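SAMPLE LOG
Freezer: B-3
Tube label: C17
Construct: single chain, 205 aa
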Amino acid sequence: MIEWVFFIPACFALNLAFGPNNLLAMTHGAKGGVVFAQKAALGRLIVFVPMIAVSALGLGVVLTASALIFSIVKTLGAAYLVWLGLNLWRSARTTATSKINATPARFARAFKSEALVALSNPKAILIFAAFFPQFVVPENYWQSYAMLGAAFLLMEAVAIFVYAVSGRFASSFAADRLPTLQRVSGITMCMFGILLLISPQPSRP
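STRUCTURE (predicted):
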């Protein structure tokens, strides 16, 4: 039997941890609203599904077993985060309260960003590969892994909502400071990219 009493609080803490994707949810919530941010974050959830499946198959250790593969994924991910951060900084110049409404083009860009950022950090799959197995029931492996994955995605959706509401709340009470929020988000995203680039290869689970 899955030990939900331990899994849920530990996993939800991981979901709520401040990182690039949650920063995006907060930024999208500030610019386009809570619903817009949640729809854009579907890109993240869709990406997480095959990542969980790959981990269930035991392929998550590839990133730790191969220094070359890890380095390539990490470098590409770091470069994308820095590029995204610079774009957030530049867009702050043209941000205006009257232009917050999201258009289809903006939604497509936000959806793509969520998906690519979810893929940019190889440690994400290591969470599924190293954390989930601690709660998997060996006698019912596939069903328990699927249940853990479903629970993770549900709590991830809740975390997305929390960050989106936070972003919208901030923009509603300080709309004139939205460009500043975007600049701070841009700098933070660049910092995430730099930290990812210098992070060591994780040990094999």
